[in-house]
Write a structure and sequence with these properties.
By secondary structure, the chain is α+β, with helices and mostly antiparallel strands. The chain has 4 domains: 126 residues, Arc Repressor Mutant, subunit A; 59 residues, no CATH class; 47 residues, no CATH class; 89 residues. The chain is 50% helix and 10% strand. The strands form 5 sheets. The protein has a 4-stranded mixed β-sheet with strand order 5-4-3-6, sandwiched between helices. Strands 1-2 form a two-stranded antiparallel ribbon. Helix 5 crosses helix 7 and helix 7 runs parallel beside helix 9. It is globular. The chain starts with a helix and ends in a 14-residue tail after the last strand.
Length: 400
């Protein structure tokens, strides 16, 4: 087998050596990219499956490495943290046949496999669902779903939160390019407070960019918002819009099932999370309800689905319910935060606003729809958005 693998390696090396991107026809470049991506997935699958075997050899000790992860990190040019994840995935996947088969078939990237295995090891019955989720969801959405699976399977979520709190930290460093980096880790509830405090500054930076005609990633505005909040002047460039800093309150959208709130814990299929951030124990939800300003959407609360509003924009209840259903863009595979709320059918025709007729795209997909004629394929929930010449475009469906 070693000889066969080395033969494939030689063939691939020769192919890459002769690859000149400018000579690849535009009609085949995507197909070629997808083939190389599948090769990369298969190679990553083999590396992952082999990782746990390294510990059985004495090779990593002879190299002077303290652990198999350190040895693999040096061999593959990755971080020790990433190598530890690979080794852990390699050990756990042996007990998860559905995930292992998907990995062997090249259906999962290394990052997807690591994410799924981490959750499926705690809830093996969720293997099929998580593998299916990986086929259409972005990595961030897959991670969010995996977090929910782990939270539902956690027998003692309060102890988990205490352990996370005990290990809380903020780490700063300067990278090889000379850029300053910040990494923070703590509980979801603490993170929600921080994000709520930054939101007014983020909104101010977003509005500033709109007025100036700038279009930058949301992450860029978030950095400017952080700098503005620390500076306490109200903006990242030192000019204060108004008089002083706002007295900020902790505002969060808590998504929780009524039964879980009453019972004190969650079971599979129930939610208890701060939207856009992550799951929290029911005890945390109860504490938030007692001491914070929280807009609460519960599965047996007011039925806003069938409320018809005659205004163009959604009501507060409809907006909160829409955020509960879709905290990110409505387009399949897009995990950008949405800032727009579109009517499925133009309000000028219907003269009303209903929750089941609203869809929240991100700025990019809103512009593609508004200016370039793109459209969501027919259906509900997250689904693909396609260009005007795509046969799935609603304008291209055959007449009845």
């Amino acid at each position: 087998m070693v000889g066969a693998v080395q033969h494939v390696e030689s063939s691939l090396a020769a192919m890459v050596a002769d690859l000149h991107p400018s000579t690849v026809p535009a009609s085949t470049v995507v197909e070629m990219f997808e083939s190389f991506d599948r090769i990369e997935r298969l190679a990553s699958a083999a590396k992952t499956l082999l990782a746990c075997r390294v510990e059985d050899t004495a090779e990593f000790r002879r190299s002077g490495s303290l652990s198999p992860a350190e040895f693999l990190a040096a061999k593959s040019g990755t971080s020790i943290s990433a190598a530890k994840d690979t080794v852990a995935t390699s050990v756990k996947i042996a007990e998860l046949p559905v995930v292992e088969q998907a990995l062997r078939d090249g259906e999962l990237s290394c990052a997807q496999a690591t994410t799924i295995v981490d959750a499926a090891a705690k809830a093996p019955e969720q293997q099929h669902r998580l593998v299916d989720k990986a086929k259409t969801a972005s990595l961030r959405e897959l991670k969010d779903e995996s977090q929910r699976v782990k939270a539902a399977a956690d027998a003692n979520p309060d102890a988990t939160q205490q352990r996370i709190h005990a290990g809380r930290h903020v780490h700063t460093f300067t990278d090889a390019e000379g850029a300053w980096n910040l990494h923070a880790r703590g509980t979801v509830a603490a993170g929600a407070r921080i994000e709520a405090a930054l939101k007014p500054y983020l909104d101010a930076e977003f509005e500033r960019a709109r007025v100036e005609g700038r279009r930058e990633p949301l992450e860029a505005y978030a950095f400017d918002a952080l700098a503005a909040a620390v500076d306490q002047s109200g903006s990242s460039d030192g000019t204060a819009p108004g008089s002083g800093r706002e007295n900020l309150r902790y505002l969060a959208l808590l998504r929780v099932d009524l039964e879980a709130l009453q019972r004190g814990d969650t079971v599979d299929g129930e939610f208890c999370e701060i939207t856009g951030i992550g799951p929290v124990p029911v005890s945390t939800a109860r504490a938030l309800l007692g001491e914070s300003i929280v807009k609460l959407v519960i599965t047996k609360g007011v039925d806003v689905l069938h409320v018809t509003h005659l205004g163009r924009g959604p009501t507060v209840a409809q907006t909160v319910a829409l955020l509960w259903q879709n905290s990110t863009c409505i387009v399949e595979g897009c995990d950008r935060t949405h800032r727009e709320i579109d009517h499925r059918e133009d309000w000028a025709k219907t003269k009303h606003t209903r929750l089941d007729e609203l869809e929240p795209p991100c700025d990019l997909h809103h512009d593609l729809k508004t200016y370039d004629g793109w459209a969501l394929v027919e259906g509900k929930g997250k689904r693909p958005m396609v260009p005007p010449d795509d046969p799935r475009h609603p304008n291209n469906k055959p007449p009845p």
